[in-house]
Amino acid sequence: MDKQRKDAVWKDFWAAQNASSAPAVVSTQWDAITRAQFDVWTDFLREVKGGAKVLDIATGAGKVLHMMRATRPDLELYGIDIAQDFPDPPHKTKLVGGVHMEEMPFDDGQFDVVVSQFGFEYGDTEAGAKEILRVLHAEGRMAFMVHRGDGPIVAHNRKRIEQISWLRDENSLFSRIVEMIPVDSSISQEAYDFAKDLAARGERKFGLGSVAWEIPEAVRRTLILGAKGSREKLIETLDLIEEQAESEVDRIRSLLVASAAADEREKLLEGFTKQGREALHCTPVSLSKGEVFADLIVL
To answer: pLDDT by residue for the chain (299 residues), tens digit each?
Structure first.
């Protein structure tokens, strides 16, 4: 996937997250994962001096900044992201959209701390490291929470891409539904039954609430509502559902590439080691059952 497409799917993802009340996280284990992240960041902040200027790279919905503001109200917080739209930031926090970590609009040595949570490994890590070191004070600290390829977040998303492929490739959901829609856009019993049956099969195979159930169920409901409008409008709505599914596949592929990059730890940090900055320590981030889903690398 090229850089332009990757940027687009993540911008769409955060826009959708910001428009809903759902947690902005790529896993269903929101509460447990957030708790573990909060604990690790709180421990890290004990090493950060009072009033420090902190930059969060790829801030997304500002999750890390909210955690930091809750425990350290004295910090001066900034966040950047490739997305343009953000939810309400924490109090006295400056967010800058449309910015990549490889080229940031900040002065040399402006920050005391640079952090990232599931962001650094998505970019050009060598160029990003050079730019981070430019905006970081000479004695500044860095901390990057990165994916683990063997963790539950990656496993959860692998299942999602498997389910979407099952719908799209094995069962040809969208193309078959469109073929079944009558010219007058009235409810096609054949299309309705196909979507209903596929949702039931998805539930049996992958579970209720799985994407294999969710997408055909959305199609079934769209067919009911679509009978009130034109065929063109109905197909337009179905195309939108298909486009969202394709975007999800691309987003997950981006996540899998990023997790693989994070697992190649020596290469991941090469841009820093070339500049004489070595990792000080690495803390596994795990759920209460001991499942490690990330590492916090402190430099």
So the answer is: 555 654 554 455 445 445 444 333 333 344 788 889 999 999 999 999 999 999 999 998 888 999 999 889 999 999 999 988 777 778 789 999 999 999 999 999 999 999 999 999 999 999 999 999 999 999 999 999 999 999 999 999 999 999 999 999 999 999 999 899 887 766 789 999 999 999 999 999 999 999 999 999 999 999 888 766 678 888 899 999 999 999 999 999 999 999 999 999 999 999 999 999 999 999 999 998 889 999 999 99
Residue 265 has which token pair? 């730890």
Cα–Cα distance for residue pair 16/23, rounded to 1 Å: 11
Q: Which residues neighbour 43 within 8 Å (Cβ) at sequence distance 6 or greater?
A: 283
- The residues near 291 (Cβ < 8 Å, ≥ 6 apart) are 151, 152
**Other CB atoms within 10 Å distance of the CB of residue 176:** 14
Distance, CA of 98 to CA of 76 (rounded, Å): 21
The HSE-up count of residue 256 (CA atoms within 13 Å, CB side) is 14
Structure tokens at 252: 């997950």
Return all residues near 294 (Cβ < 8 A) that are at least 6 apart.
37, 118, 145, 146, 147, 148, 151, 153, 284, 285
